[in-house]
User: What shape does this take?
Amino acid sequence: MSTMFADTLLIVFISVCTALLAEGITWVLVYRTDKYKRLKAEVEKQSKKLEKKKETITESAGRQQKKKIERQEEKLKNNNRDLSMVRMKSMFAIGFCFTALMGMFNSIFDGRVVAKLPFTPLSYIQGLSHRNLLGDDTTDCSFIFLYILCTMSIRQDAYRSMACQAVPCPHLGSEPANPGPPKWNVGT
Amino acid sequence: AAGGGKRSRLSRSWPTGPSKSLSGARCCGATRPGRTRTGFCNLGQDEFLDVIYWFRQIIAVVLGVIWGVLPLRGFLGIAGFCLINAGVLYLYFSNYLQIDEEEYGGTWELTKEGFMTSFALFMVIWIIFYTAIHYD
Assistant: This one.
């Protein structure tokens, strides 16, 4: 196995580890706290209640009914916002850790061609894909480009498969969808 | 594990709660001989979007391997992936499942569900196989 391919696999491995580390940090700081569990249960309960109410409401429903629904929607929105605030502290911790890690990996892989691209990137992407590399071959891939691609795919897949049972998954738009019962049960 | 619970295996639940479902003749009625799609007819909205998401990831892995092995290079490879990814999913939910796209925010919402993640995964797999087979 050549050095270049070994680097490619190493970067994918680093990406998997950092994705798991991010989820681990989020679990320690957020998912296992009582506040988060309480808020999550509250959001699920309110979502179901609101959905049931919306299904039974008719066009001729009184103003009072509609006002009640608006109040419940407002309450749900506030709880979702509190849920987001609780997750925010893990984001700071992850950001701090990853800044340090990125600095370390950048120095390790500085100037090394870690993969060959099967295409020539657009000129504004070459600043990322050919970062700190010698020569003019634009199909040479730098660490940062491959790492970003890996992170975009692996982190999102890890989040989707593991964290989604703890966190309402945003599907349509930025508002979390109705959490519903657990979707995936992840084994050990 | 996320959510504080330990499970013995990876399993999937198909809830049939009060959330919006794919029920109705339009979904359950379009069956081929000897085949049932009642599992899909009981899917909630979020569960169906999960199916779309993971189907996209599988397509990305498969195409990444094929493109890397052939090899297919350049913009043609990227365009081919985008067309096949979007096309296969569109045929899947509109022709095979015959769902009402408006229930899920329209064709565009279903098309873009998980697209960027699958694109990134496709690029990673494509690069890995291309590097391993043609430059190793």
